[in-house]
Amino acid sequence: MNTTVIERIRTRRPLIHHITNAVVMNFTANGLLAFGGSPIMANASEEVGEVTRVSNGLLLNIGTLTETQVKAMILAGRAANETGIPVVLDPVGVAATSYRSEVCERILGEVQPTLIKGNAGELAHLVGIEMETKGVDSTGSGNLEDIVRRVAEKYQTGAVCTGEKDVVWMDGEIKVNRSGHPLLSQITGSGCLLGSLVAAALAVDGKPLENVTAVLRLYGEAAEKAAAHKDVEGPGTFLPRFIDALAKESWGDDS
Amino acid sequence: MNTTVIERIRTRRPLIHHITNAVVMNFTANGLLAFGGSPIMANASEEVGEVTRVSNGLLLNIGTLTETQVKAMILAGRAANETGIPVVLDPVGVAATSYRSEVCERILGEVQPTLIKGNAGELAHLVGIEMETKGVDSTGSGNLEDIVRRVAEKYQTGAVCTGEKDVVWMDGEIKVNRSGHPLLSQITGSGCLLGSLVAAALAVDGKPLENVTAVLRLYGEAAEKAAAHKDVEGPGTFLPRFIDALAKESWGDDS
Amino acid sequence: MNTTVIERIRTRRPLIHHITNAVVMNFTANGLLAFGGSPIMANASEEVGEVTRVSNGLLLNIGTLTETQVKAMILAGRAANETGIPVVLDPVGVAATSYRSEVCERILGEVQPTLIKGNAGELAHLVGIEMETKGVDSTGSGNLEDIVRRVAEKYQTGAVCTGEKDVVWMDGEIKVNRSGHPLLSQITGSGCLLGSLVAAALAVDGKPLENVTAVLRLYGEAAEKAAAHKDVEGPGTFLPRFIDALAKESWGDDS
């Protein structure tokens, strides 16, 4: 392919429908806009199906889920499956409560995701491996390749495990990304925004594994560039520079 | 009048009650505070009437509407109509789904707005003109003056169409504003915040047409100033500088 | 004690469960992360008890309350009381509507807070003293020590009144803090974030009165440092520098 994934995203400007958590909505919308996508966020069951049908991708994030929102997620997910739109599920904090765990299984029983993206603790929980977690953050490590493969096989889906190193599994192939910066873990929603960008990666032409891995790499490189900016003195000043870095026009993207 | 609209806003600090979308609440509150107004955001049907009655203006924004919120909007809107408080309606994404379209008509059947503010696609949809839209963003153009006049006549209201040029229609008169910067379209909620500032413009003394047009001009000029700031390198760093620009004390405001 | 409260917070990284208002969720999460704590925000009645039981502190903030959220607050508050986890109640805008006032009494009838944090108008309202308020902001002054003492006695709780000077009452003792900067009042949620940090202060070892007062002082000093930063030109650029200041590793904290 003669174009890069970032070029294809910026040309198509894929419309991504988000049913996501209330903490990160603004940051996610600004981050996806900067990267080149187009965000829409609707929660009402009366309209989520229609919104999904005009979108190019769907992100489901359970970070502040309620029963009403779960109902909307299932309606949107089914609409996406019916129309062949990629679905990314981010099972935020699924290991934290039995309710999240139950809801996740309920969604996965009704909706076929294209990709499940989570940290090690979340993905491990989905396949019955216990890891140490704290709130919505995973603190453990383990055989990430094995966890990702088991999630992919259990749910017949692509899978991405994010962390110090990111592991991507799609269609029986695996890739690893090692770009990134620790400041990302000091701003809320950095993983949630990545889920949105992964949905954009799946919404444009190209091999999904390559697209997703390239976006993970770009995300980490943007964090590295922002953290190295001379005016960045902590997580507060990192955030706007990170958005700037996501918006940069001339990426060194060779995917 | 010997004072400018920005002076009157900063003297009165009008309290604007927002029933708005979840994506932009924080940005809207910070933007209105910077501009000189005072934000309050309440959604519970049990209290929205009481909140509106102590406010100086009401903003209704349907960006992430739910049935519960629509009920609250109608209660708040009626309270505003009863007490003579200006009401601004922002029909975000009204062309995107039949539900939004139906809800908008329902609100407009129960609440008399002082002003409807939207982009070209949203306003065109309200008066039955089809334009190209993408999610909540309008991508088409057209005879904006005609669209604005038709919205104003159909709903017996003021109307503002925002975009590269802004067109204001109030009480049979029309004004155009051409200040602004493309970076505004790269941050989420820039149109939503403008709705809040327009409500503030209607909440202070002065001719509504002049007040609203002056605020549109100031908003665009603040964006131009922020975009020209030497430390701004993209939408991330533009946002805080834009808030700073809205807060600047010595505006060149001659309205 | 040989460690400071900020050292203890950064060592333990207390997990604080927030049921808070939708306007400030993102800012609160980023602020608590910067300060050294770990935020979690869940609203569903199905899981708030379980989330609270694995947390080290609970913050209840009624800024955009709904009946559903009030139910969740009571469930979470009872879980916290049963497991001995500190509870901070922030009665945002309690004087603004009769509904907020009624809800506050309902929560306080079911949940024993460790500390109630509010501005002068909010705390005065809780003990039947009328003060001038505007929306969710208090504009009056008065005998703050008396108000705080009366709140503490009426609800058998610690109490903090925030404003130009902060007054803390815990276990029959009183302390005053005078650090701070007016720019704090120009960003939305600065009081709400402080409630979160106070919950973190109560979640670590040390005398509660000393911990809370130290955190109030650090918060004000961070605002002073940020406001004095050469690149800060208004509330927009103040905000990221304030988060940076909260994250600074080498605090001059002698508590």
From TrEMBL, chains A, B, C:
Keywords: ATP-binding, Kinase, Magnesium, Metal-binding, Nucleotide-binding, Thiamine biosynthesis, Transferase
Pathway field: Cofactor biosynthesis; thiamine diphosphate biosynthesis; 4-methyl-5-(2-phosphoethyl)-thiazole from 5-(2-hydroxyethyl)-4-methylthiazole: step 1/1
Sequence positions that bind ATP: K117, T162
Domain of life: Bacteria
Catalytic activity: 5-(2-hydroxyethyl)-4-methylthiazole + ATP = 4-methyl-5-(2-phosphooxyethyl)-thiazole + ADP + H(+)
EC number, as in UniProt: 2.7.1.50
An example Gene Ontology molecular-function term: magnesium ion binding
Residues that bind substrate: M41, G189
Entry's Gene Ontology BP terms: thiamine biosynthetic process; thiamine diphosphate biosynthetic process
Cofactor: Mg(2+)
Family: Belongs to the Thz kinase family.
NCBIfam families: PRK09355.1, thiM
Protein name according to UniProt: Hydroxyethylthiazole kinase
Lineage: Bacteria, Bacillati, Bacillota, Bacilli, Bacillales
